[in-house]
Amino acid sequence: MFSNFLVKRFVKNYDNVSDVKVRGAYANLAGIVGIVTNLMLFIIKLSVGLLSNSVSILADAFNNLSDAASSIITIIGFKMANKPADAEHPFGHGRIEYITAMIVSFMVMLVGIQFVKTSFQKIINPTPVTFELWPFILLLISIGFKFWLSKFNKSIGNKINSSTLKATATDAMGDVFTSTTVVISFLICKFTTFPIDGYIGIVVALAIVYSGFSLIKETLSPLLGEPPDPVLVSNITDMVMSYDNITGIHDLIVHNYGPGRIMASIHAEIPSNIDIMEIHHIIDTAEREISKELNIYLVIHMDPICVDTDEIIEARNMVKDVLSKYEEVKSFHDFRVVGEHDNKNLIFDIEVSPTCLANESSSSKLLANIEKDIKEKAPEYRCVITVDLAL
Description:
Blueprint: H1 2-10, H2 20-52, H3 55-81, H4 96-124, H5 133-160, H6 163-188, H7 196-224, H8 230-241, E1 248-256, E2 262-271, H9 276-294, E3 297-305, H10 310-323, E4 329-340, E5 343-352, H11 354-358, H12 360-377, E6 381-389
Parallel strand pairs: 2-3, 5-6
Antiparallel strand pairs: 1-2, 4-5
């Protein structure tokens, strides 16, 4: 309820999440809320940690301070990511958002590593922890604030599809569990002189390190080039195939230049006997309408396919029958027969699984087996086969 109030109060046109300015307003709101909440939690936990002489509480306090710094970086990162395209960056600066998430992740790891060392020193040279009721209650309240902050960031991250805010939400939920552990150890210290505080401090610190490492893996993936969203792939293929005279599609490539900055290209097969101006109009319309509908930049390449001769129909069916025996082959396309008499080539592309394409010997063996099977069925043909990656 309070989250919705903040969004409606501070984000204009909050439903139009595809707009760059609206995304920026959401990011600013999340960043400011994160700074205020984490600074408040830092002050509370720092005071409790110093009063009680608890290293685990101090570790948790400085973790909150790093989260406040992360929120500042998030705001700066979004502002830089929303810069318009220029000559050096023709597709915009959207990937800065991923780099921002990476910086946040490294900061989380550094805090954790530092407190592993501090907690280890506390185990070697233990000092008593003083339990007080009011500090204990304040720590319990802080857990509730962190839980709400995680849900708030996750809600906004999902709404605007922000990897940075999703990472921040994951980090905050991790803090909920580590803070709970700290509170439990603080309570146990009332009943024992065993230096549990140092051991719990190490557990908390290692959890912070692991959280940072996990966030790095998540944010590194889109920078390296991860597979496109299956829902987006399905939407593009279904929408392209819905247009008249497009009989097949293949070679879909999706480039991610940051949230809301996606470029895609796809090959569309059309019968070769259709008027070139008519099919150009269809392709042009499809590019424009699909780009607008999916908020992407789509380019469609036209592949004319000759399908009206008995020889091509018979040869295509024969190849289809041969390829059906191979589980690695997901589909084939761009099929054509080139040449005449005894000098004929069957030219086509096959889409194979990523594991097959990654292994050069496997893909070479697959091609050799396919060519052998086709040669047995139709010795008059030679094969020219191109291997593509199936999405």
